[in-house]
Amino acid sequence: MSSAVTRARARVASLVDALAARLLGGPLTGGTRSFLANFGYLLSSDVIATLITFGLSTYVVRLLGPEEFGSANLVIGTAQLFVVPMLLGLHAAAAREIASSPAPGRVLSSTLVLIGCLLPAVVLVGTVTATPLSTALGVPRTVLLWSLGFAAVTTLQIVTQAMLTGLRLFARVGRHNVVAAVAYAVPTAALLVTRVTWTYALYVLLSAMRLLVFAGLCLKDTAPSMEWPQRALVQRLARFGAVYSVGSVAYLFALSSIDTLMLNAYHGVSAVGLYGAYYAAFNIVASRVTKLVSDVLLPTASAHGNPSAMYGRVARTFVVVGWLAVPAAALLCRLLFVVYGGKFEFSWVTASLLGLCIYMHLGVTMSADLLVAKGLRGVSTTSAISLVTAVANLGGNALLIPAYSVDGSLLATAAASLAGLMLRVAVLRRQPVVTRVT
After folding, report:
1. Distances, alpha carbon 79 to alpha carbons 83, 93, 167, 400, in Å
2. Distance in angstroms (rounded) separating the CA atoms of residues 368 and 380
3. How far is 194 from 77, CA to CA, in rounded Å?
4. What percentage of the chain's residues is helix, strand, coil (to nearest 5)?
5. What CA–CA distances, in Å, run from 48 to 42, 141, 210, 265, 397?
6. Which H or E run contains 324?
7. Position 433 pLDDT exceeds 50
8. Using the 8-state DSSP alphabet, how is residue 89 labeled?
9. How far apart are CA 385 and CA 282, in angstroms?
10. C-alpha distances in angstroms, 361 versus 252, 325, 357, 366, 367?
11. CA gap 208, 215 in Å, rounded
12. For residue 243, what are the contacts with CB-CB under 8 A and spacing of at least 6?
């Protein structure tokens, strides 16, 4: 029996190696095989976590209704504005610096010192200025305060995951993801059985608890490796993150804020609601595959392997496999609209445009992280490109949204993302990549 299992495993491994080598355009090296194994492990664990929570979350959305679920999305969406100054690009810097450092324990503790200063500072400023901020953003003060707390938990989860992947503990990252999903699913199912009245606050609390469990497990695993922090490391991480955040703000603004504001200006809140209904599919894909690639695998791979070879692998994978995001996103949109129960009008054209945006977004995040591997100079370059992309998206929206509404918004986003991708690829082809943050 054991010999049959061994032969079966060997045959499957041989088939996988042959398929991967064909997709990547050459035989698998040890580094490539390790890269693919880590990606496969993380992706499979994320799929399991999604399967655990997807049905429950979908049913909760039906119970919440449009108004309460809209308030929950408003909290989570507003939180993203606060994540940028709280995170300060540490998710990009920490994994790479930890992976390449001869003393990763000092980088771990230096990262926590910086986060320990940023989180309370942003929360304090946001709380003190909550009233004028809520007026400026057009959200209730309560929603803004909830978003501050959710942003802090989100930031902590992102940074602790980056720290763990920097130590190359990919299996633990995957395991913690599944455990956190279970920690969300069990109380959610219990509350559904007891038929409590669902509110946006309860939904946000459960979502935050899932992130907090994930962060706590990651901290537990990194704690034994920590050493005394270094002032120079804290300063280097902060300098790197300050430049990185410029691009993050520009890209976040271009990707969501411009679209929402201009759709509301030209077509009213119903168009914003339809855009949000499609955008749910973007969030599902972006929070899975793109985050695994850009926030976990590429930063670590650029520190451990040959970055130039990694660029070639990523480019081939993007061209050969990445296009599958287009039909996959369209089908996912269709599934979501079935769940919505006919409250929104579905269009295959709009769903396909969303898939194209996801495909372009994947290319942008991959190329941006490869540029970040150049160090501070690469970060400055990708930040400048992000600003250009934001301006291009604004112009595209002004031309297309008045006539084509949501379709025009998605077309403008795809075109701006393509322009940003081409600029980054041109820079990558012209300049060599280094492996350290300087």
Report:
1. 6, 22, 28, 28
2. 11
3. 29
4. 90, 0, 10
5. 10, 36, 15, 40, 37
6. none
7. no
8. T
9. 22
10. 12, 10, 6, 9, 10
11. 11
12. 89, 376, 379, 380, 383
Whole-Å CA distances, 304 to 19, 75, 193, 380: 24, 38, 48, 23
CA distances to 69, 350, 380 from 275, in Å: 15, 10, 32
pLDDT in tens, 94-138: 777 777 777 788 888 888 888 888 899 999 999 999 999 888 777
240: how many CB neighbours lie within 10 A of its CB?
24
Output DSSP code: residue 223.
Answer: G
23-71 pLDDT, tens per residue?
Answer: 445 555 555 556 556 666 666 777 777 777 777 777 777 777 666 766 7
SS (H, E, C) 133-200: HHHHHCCCHHHHHHHHHHHHHHHHHHHHHHHHHHCCCHHHHHHHHHHHHHHHHHHHHHHHHHCCCCCH
d(CA 351, CA 332): 9
Q: How far is CA 96 from CA 101, 227, 248, 363, in A?
A: 8, 18, 18, 20
Q: What is the Cα–Cα distance from 374 to 341, expressed in whole angstroms?
A: 48
Rounded CA-CA distance 421/314 in Å is 13
Length of the chain: 438
Closest CA to 70 of 295, 290, 343, 437: 343
Say if residues 171 and 100 touch (Cβ distance below 8 Å). no
Judge if pTM exceeds 0.85: no
Torsion sign (Cα): 229, 234, 240, 242: positive
Structure tokens at 311: 């660029």
Alpha carbons 429 and 426: distance in angstroms, whole number: 5
Name the token pair of 189. Answer: 């199912």
DSSP state of 394: H
List Cβ neighbours of 213 (8 Å cut-off, separation of 6 or more): 179, 180, 183, 184
Question: Is pLDDT above 90 for 152?
Answer: yes
Q: Are 285 and 328 in contact (CB under 8 A)?
A: yes
SS3 69: helix
**Among all chains, which residue has been given the structure tokens 């986060």?**
115
For the CA atoms of the chain, what is the radius of gyration? 22
Residue with tokens 């041989």: 14
